[in-house]
Fold this sequence. Notes:
It is built from 1 helix and 10 strands. It is mainly beta. It has one domain (2-129). The strands form 2 sheets. Strands 1, 2, 3, 4, 5, 7, 8 and 10 form an 8-stranded mixed β-sheet that branches. Strands 6-9 form a two-stranded antiparallel sheet. Strand 2 and strand 3 (45-46) form a beta hairpin. It is globular, with a radius of gyration of 15 Å.
Amino acid sequence: MAGTFSTTLNNKLLDHILKTAPFSVPSNIYVALYSAAPTAAGGGSELSGNGYARKVHNSWDAGAAGATENTGAITFDPASGGNWLEAVAFGLFDAITGGNFLAWGDLTTPKTVTDGDTAEFADGALDISLT
Length: 131
């Protein structure tokens, strides 16, 4: 699953590099799931309800050739009290709720998480690139 930076993150990095405004490294990176994919500008429909919550994941490979990927599996808590809508995309944020939208990508294989099941990205499954 390949993803790319959001417009917000692109602008923050440009501002930082060109000394317009500093960019602080986020304390945590949270992975979100979407039933309707966002665009680089944001939007989309993040999953909600039935035990869904963004999952913190702070382990990523060092950038190489303009890309990185997750180190270690990213496992969401199980759905509880009902199924989640079909997840078709992922997003990265700097907060458990709200926050800055950092990156996104479509899922290669959309998944409906049923009650008691979990969503998981294997080690190296989320690829984020600058191009």
